[in-house]
Amino acid sequence: xxxxxxxxxxxxxxxxxxVYGYDDFRGDQAAIVEQVIGGGDAVVLMPTGGGKSVTxxxxxxxxxxxxxxxxxxxxxxxxQVDALVxxxxxxxxxxxxxxxxxxxxxxxxxxxxxxxxxxxAPERLGNGQTLAFLQRGSLSVIAIxxxxxxxxxxxxxxxxxxxxxxxxxxxxxVPRMALTATATRETHREITERLRLPDAKHFVAxxxxxxxxxxxxxxxxxxxxxxxxxRSFPGAAGIVYALSRKSVEQIAEYLAxxxxxxxxxxxxxPPEVRAxxxxxxxxxxxVVIVATIAFGMxxxxxDVRFVAHVDLPKSVEGYYQETGRAGRDGEPSVVWMAYxxxxxxxxxxxxxxxxxxxxxxxxxxxHLDAMLALCETVGCRRQNLLAYFGExxxxxxxxxxxxxxxxxxxxxxxxxxxxSTIVRLQRERGQAYSAGQLIDILRxxxxxxxxxxxxxxxxTFGIGADLSEQDWRSVIRxxxxxxxxxxxxxxxxxALTDASSGVLRGETPVPLRRDVLGRGGSAxxxxx
Length: 528
Ligand code: ADP
Ligand code: ZN
Known about the structure:
Bound molecules: adenosine-5'-diphosphate, zinc ion
Structural class: alpha/beta
Strand content: 5-15%
Distance between the termini: 59 Å
């Protein structure tokens, strides 16, 4: 660690210029820095790319003592500390990946007052030993990053965060900050309460990212849709998110085979491969990283031009955070998602089979419902997204539904046909089926399975031949999203819900969104 000029007591703006080379603070940064340098607590809700880092780093440099940064992402501490050291900041971290010798050296530097910033993982602060050690030195500020992890109802709960409220007792005179890039009103309240920040000043920036264009398309042939999307950004860097490691690898391989400079990233890859792929993405131009959500938290690559989701994210918070990695430089960027019936069925199944208790499953179900509502909205996507975070806004003019307002059509009759087919199969034969077989019955398909099961003798056989298979999938997907139908068990067999009876009686209107492929550009036809 290089020695450098002591900045204690300096003017914060001068520190910003000298250390970071920025001309001035932006947004709420100056006010936050002032609050904390004055010794007050702060809760900071600011979207990704908003510039949270300097709001705790500058006070750490200006106030006497070491700034403690609690960050859950051990993998990133190393990079963050390296970047700080490169700017002449005396920064270090303590975590489980270090040798005893390394740890001792960092501890010595801290106790000697020779560190500006010290990063630690939350699990270390749960034990009294670490707290006692930290009390032997002197802290200037405590910053709790990714503070939404304290929320049990949030999408990223980490039990270690619950102990962080204890920092209030251990360091009553040190200003504390909680920072996050994602918080609903409920999560905001939990952060304030659980991290014990009753007197904190709250800084809530708008979560709007106006340079990001939102697009969600029905999933038809996801790989080809993805390829067409990526090809509309020649030479640009982007991130593709998929849910499983296996699909990450398959998609990366497919894209590479099509001439895209694509690399996989997931927790199951050897650490050296992961590190190499990440650094190629950061350093070279035009690399597309295909990743599970393990990738991206805290990655500071300003010129990511697009983010694609080929699987439905589990929550709106997750979607917002992942899409937020696009366009941190403020330049126009596009985020796109392919979403289909299979995603709904799969995620309901994952929730049903998850080991948690009833409350846990209810929470996951609520997250999924909000995500589905965003997918199926006929209104502005951004308005829907911001409303989820408690922010009111006007239609944005820069999302797929604003640019090409979706048509709606009356889906009551098809919905009744489908629901009555399900009822008949259940009543007359004690059977339940998943979407594929039901569509074959409705469309009057002549398959071996239809004949073997005698489904061609059902009264509803062939009554839905006026709609294509794709239309039926769209109907079923939207009914599932609205809770007018439910998918059960390992095969996603479809069943009625309490709300379905209103549809059968013709009392519940069923306006449906007409699916259009590739709105705003890449039209794709199904190949098989
Ligand atoms: P967050 O942690 O909120 O996602 P960062 O702290 O990583 O955001 O900052 C996002 C980007 O904005 C970074 O590239 C950073 O260098 C830049 N940045 C932050 N504050 C300023 C500023 N006052 N002037 C210019 N650039 C800034
Ligand atoms: Zn819009």
